[in-house]
Amino acid sequence: MLKKIFTWWEGATIGTALHSWRNGSKVGSDSLGNIYYEGKKDGRRWVIYAGENDASAVPPEWHSWLHKQIDGLPDDVLPPVRAFEKPGTRNLTGTDAAYRPSGALEKGGQRQAATGDYEAWTPN
Amino acid sequence: MPKVKVDGIEVEVPVGATVMQACEAAGKEIPRFCYHERLTIAGNCRMCLVEVKPGPPKPQASCALPASDGQEITTMSPAVKKAREGVMEFLLINHPLDCPICDQGGECDLQDQAVAYGRGHSRFAENKRAVTEKYMGPVVKTIMTRCIQCTRCVRFAEEVAGVEEIGAIYRGENMQITSYLEGAVTSELSGNVVDLCPVGALVSKPYSFEARPWELSKVPGIDVSDGVGTNIRIDSRLREVMRVVPRISEEVNEEWAHDKTRHMVDGLTRNRLDRPWVRKGGKLQAATWEEAFDAIAKVAKKAGDSVAAVAGDLVDVETMYAAKKLLASLGSNLIEGRQTGLAYDATNIAAVNFNTTIAGIETADAILLVGTNPRWEASLVNTRIRKAVKKGAKVFAIGPEVDLTYPVEWLGNDMSLLAKLPKAAADAMTKAERPAMIVGGSALKVPGGQAASLALVDSLNLIRGDWNGYNVLHTVAARTAGLMLGYALAGGMAALAEKAPKLLFLLGADEADLSPFDKSFKVYVGHHGDKGAHGADVILPGAAYTEKHGIYVNLEGRVQYSERAIFPPGDAREDWSIFRALSAVLGKPLPFDSFGELRTALFAEYPAFAEAGLVRFDWAPPALKAEAIAQGTEVAYPIKDFYLTNPIARSSPTLRRCSAEILHGEDFAEAAE
Amino acid sequence: MADILPNSLPDIEELRARWGGFAWSSENEAQAKIIVGRYPLGRQHSALLPLLDLAQRQVGAETNTQGWLPVPVIEYVAKYLDMPYIRAYEVATFYTMYNLQPVGRHHVQVCGTTPCMLRGSDDVLAACYAKGLKKGQTTPDGLFTLTEVECLGACANAPMVQINDDNYEDLTFESMTAILEAMAKGEMPKAGPQIDRQTSCPEGGPTSLKEMATENHDYRGEWK
Known about the structure:
The complex is a heterotrimer of chains A (124), B (673) and C (224).
Chain A: H1 2-6, H2 14-23, E1 24-29, E2 35-39, E3 45-48, H3 60-66, H4 74-77
Antiparallel strand pairs in A: 1-2, 2-3
Chain B: E1 3-6, E2 9-12, H1 19-25, E3 49-52, E4 60-61, E5 72-74, H2 78-93, H3 109-117, E6 140-142, H4 152-159, E7 166-169, E8 176-179, H5 192-196, E9 202-204, E10 217-222, E11 231-237, E12 240-246, H6 259-263, E13 277-280, E14 283-286, H7 289-303, E15 307-311, H8 317-329, E16 334-336, E17 366-370, H9 374-377, H10 379-390, E18 394-398, E19 409-412, H11 423-431, E20 435-439, H12 441-445, H13 449-459, E21 463-464, E22 467-468, E23 470-472, H14 479-485, H15 492-499, E24 503-507, E25 521-526, H16 531-534, E26 538-541, E27 550-553, E28 558-562, H17 575-585, H18 595-605, E29 613-614, H19 647-650, H20 653-663
Chain C: H1 12-19, H2 26-37, H3 48-63, H4 71-80, H5 85-94, E1 106-111, H6 114-118, H7 121-130, E2 144-149, E3 161-163, E4 166-169, H8 173-185, E5 192-193
């Protein structure tokens, strides 16, 4: 409850929730749990996130709807999902699951030989 | 002295000078590929064409035409320009478009002259010819497609190196330069063809694809792999020395450097001492500087004045001076530099110096080699002797027979011959105008050897006016400087062992036999982990020759200054500063706090080091007791393996491969590139 | 140059095993001394060219072919003249008459330059191909090696071939075939023009200086 009053970075704030209840009609939700609203009077479209408010959490099909690139709902207007399509994910930058190329130091790789590298002597 | 006019400028040139030399005297630059000042004239590249007035109506090769009185030479006419553009165009016809991948890019004569004298665009639309790469050894990489057949490498191998192993086979467009049957070139000077080659056909194999010349910081230095003191330029990038190339020095190394000088540098990044080590409970363990100094101080307190120092082969004057001062403050003067045990009388330095000077030996007309293999001990002195032989000098030698690249009359491996030289040799020496004798370390090792060789000075009349023909050939960079600083005990290492010092400092000494010093507490101050470090009780990491400013004195007594190219790795420090810090811990701080103060103190005490140049030693040989040498006394040359004579060389993979392949005949499968 | 491709190239170890013990035969030893004696003292290296040829012929005699110069033989000659091996090797690779690969018993060198081509050297080559000869190779029975060479200077008798040391001139497809067949049988056909013609005199006999055809006639008294 305190979180809802004092923080604004997860889900909807009190004001946004109120606005969505009064002026918005729920049109659908996606695989990540975000809920999409359309304004009753003005036709605005918005999303209430499940979890942290991060624009990359919107999957591609709902992204098109949100930006008014398509008229109807993704399930209705867009072609059916193909077998090879992966479900949408948030941007993983800065998290532990971020992509690292092979040989990256973060993944435990060795850096390339550089000028000035030397082999120190050890008594063995 | 013929007087010629070059572009209207009148110059007078010595007799025998060529038109090209006249043009250079007048300040005009003549492009060339095959001409080289130190090789014979070939005249096959045709790039040096100029117009010469009294002569045929075609441009002449200025490198080959002798200058004669009254010639009028034009170097900047449209015809000469057209000739140069034409020659350039033809050279570029079969030259591959390799500049981005060629190591010579940035320092390539062909690039520079194409920009300066070429047409700027090509008209050639056909296929270019390609040539297979030839194997020339572990040190020279060949990409013969780039070869412009200037034959500089062929002439160098024949004239300067003395090994006739590179030649040009087939003819015309199909001419290819190769080593005989694609075997390794066995000369120790083989790396010089890399510098000579005007294009990237012959490049340095260890340095290939490593760096571009504009990335490198270049510092003038002095090589320490042998006693010659070759002037080098140390090329480094950030914290690593990438390569070493020779500098021109007419008195010392002309323009050459042998393979050890060039390729020792990849040993500078291996086996490095980068932190202090202290032996605890029989095993060496990493320590801090404080711990190491404390361990030494504990022993020093009990040792009193029973302290000694053995200088290694690669140390500079400042290090030896600082160590000597430290020992003096502890009350000791037990310092010795001849770590392999030689004990000749070194009271008069001129009597153990190369008195003819390196440049002077090439003017000798009779040379007697006694127990020395100059080809391995001082390769650039050997090239000078070779020049003397080509001018007509006769060379006699006492010692085991080896191939010195010039004809030698071997008198036998018998040191008693010093007392009774064969008549032919003695006559040649006495009748010669400038006779010279070169005594090597193996002769000085024989009891009575030094006395017998000095006796020959009078009997062969080796000193005539300005000319002093008595030479001793040192193999080690630190020897002459060490002798000047007093790093010589009467009796050498054996005498030092008898004194049984309680504390022994080893300044990079890795060739010494340390078994007599079992009871001593050994402190090794050096830069590579070799024999000396393994047996030490405390190891203090110092700086190698590329990592400190230093003064070195070569075997002819020439004081030369070397500069620092990079900083020592890890926790290593400059050696003089190690002794200064240790002196503070021992309670008797040395009187200098900076490198400048050290040099000031050094020059005050030893003014000979203050100026670079030849030091004049007064000739006052010691009166040694003559000792009869038994007949049949044989000597063996001190260097058993040319490529592995110092700890840096032993850590270098290139030199290890040279030794394995060239000296021991191992086969190496070449990786397909 | 590497014009002649051997059917298989022996490597240096095999060569040394086979030819490492090469030494002059007794007549060649005497001949070699004569050749070296033609040059002043200190200039013996000039004898390299004739001695390499002599060595090549000796190899030919030993192998019953026209001879070639394996590397150990070049080294032997170099050592005989006290020369570095590379200098002798450079000379041996420079000249085309020094065979660096083995050749057959008969070295058929067909001239294909302009005068011969205009007069039908293609037919001569066709005759060779018909007999199974291939340019740059030795036939499997080791009899013939075929090479196409530059002008041999017998243009008045074009087309011609040089086989071993002799020229066979004024050839046609048939006469070339006949020569090859005779050689294969072990006969040596008459060298020179293969038609009724005396050296390079006109066909049917000379039209001037007729007496010269049979003797060295002195015309000096007959000048007008």
